[in-house]
Write a structure and sequence with these properties.
Helices cover 28% and strands 28% of the residues. By secondary structure, the protein is an alpha+beta fold. The chain folds into 2 domains: 121 residues, 2-Layer Sandwich (D-amino Acid Aminotransferase, Chain A, domain 1), CATH 3.30.470.10; 160 residues, D-amino Acid Aminotransferase, Chain A, domain 2 (Alpha-Beta Barrel). Strands 7, 8, 9, 10, 11, 12, 13 and 14 form an 8-stranded mixed β-sheet that branches. A hairpin with a 2-residue loop joins strand 3 and strand 4. The longest helix is centred in the first third of the chain and has 14 residues. The chain binds pyridoxal-5'-phosphate. Pyridoxal-5'-phosphate (PLP) binds next to helix 7 and strand 12.
Length: 293
């Protein structure tokens, strides 16, 4: 392994309300997961990715809350908040002081033949996203194939849960690369703008920041919510709305926001150039790094 070695911590008995949890720090370089784990054989599990800046995990409580929301959506037992927080702190403290760390917590349904979750936390170098945050990304829109009412009509499709089944979310990025782009905006089959494969969309129209309503089967973004909580001090209003693909072409600026890359502007959507609002991008980044409102 090159660079800084990731730190891996397993949490045995991570379920809420059970026996006390057990934390085991093990090598991230050696095999640790059974080939019979349902996370591997079925992608059956959930995860969260948390950005850690200057050793401070951003939006930690909302991430743990969303992890348990995903658990409920998948009929998994809820996790002990304190156990998760302890493992995250242990993992971050075991890494050398890096400017940006990404912590992932992964929870699978466990072994095919036994009960009990498989849970681990891995902390690693987040890398350098300064180029993306400055220059921005070219995005394409892609049909997700579900209607905007999918969460209501077909909750078993788990739209809006952060599941381990992210093969589609990776496939769309390869499709974007084939079309000369680096990012994707999912669109519902009835033409509502949704989200990216690993980020939320924020649109600026004049003095208003707009993001798609989460009831249309998308993940409630912790970064988007943090950005909105700081908007007023920049004289910006915020709005949750049902946006159409055509609305993107009229935007004054667009961003994809997420816990690792934080705030990344889009400079093109399909064939349409989009203005990059560099000044506001820097303000939004600074807000996030400064912490909660
Ligand atoms: C599908 C999807 N939407 C949105 C987000 C953004 O969420 P957050 O800002 O909490 O990282 C993610 C994060 O990975 C995601 O996977």
């Amino acid at each position: 392994m090159t660079g800084t070695d990731p730190v891996l911590i397993f949490i045995d008995r991570a379920e809420r309300g059970g026996e006390p949890p057990l934390f085991r720090q093990v090598s991230a370089d050696e095999p640790q997961i059974s080939v019979f784990d349902l996370g591997i054989t079925r992608g059956d599990g959930i995860f969260e990715s948390i950005g850690v800046f200057a050793r401070w995990p951003l939006q930690l409580a909302p991430h743990i809350e969303r992890l348990n929301r995903s658990a409920r959506m998948l009929d998994l037992p809820e996790l002990d908040d304190q156990a998760v927080e302890t493992a995250i702190t242990m993992a971050v403290e075991a890494l050398p002081p890096l400017p940006e760390i990404l912590v992932k917590i992964v929870v699978t349904r466990g072994l095919e033949s036994a009960s009990g979750l498989t849970t681990w936390v891995i902390a690693s170098d987040n890398g350098d996203y300064s180029r993306e945050r400055t220059v921005g990304l070219r995005a394409i829109t892609l049909d997700r194939g579900y209607r905007s009412d999918v969460a209501e009509t077909s909750p078993w499709l788990l739209q809006g849960a952060k599941t381990l089944s992210y093969a589609v979310n990776k496939a769309v990025l390869r499709e974007a690369a084939r079309r000369g782009a680096e990012e994707v905006i999912f669109i519902s089959s009835d033409d509502y703008v949704l989200e990216g494969p690993a980020s939320s969309l924020i649109v600026r129209e004049g003095n208003t920041l707009i993001t798609p309503v989460t009831s249309i089967g998308i993940l409630p973004g912790t970064t988007q919510q943090a950005v909105f909580s700081h908007a007023a001090k920049h004289g910006l209003d915020t709005e949750y709305a049902r946006l159409r693909t055509a609305d993107l072409a009229r935007a004054d600026a667009l961003w994809m926001v997420s816990s690792g890359r934080l705030v990344v502007p889009l400079n093109r959507v399909n064939e349409t150039p989009v203005p990059v609002d560099a000044a506001l991008t820097q303000k939004l980044l600074a807000d996030l790094l400064a912490g909660e409102e």
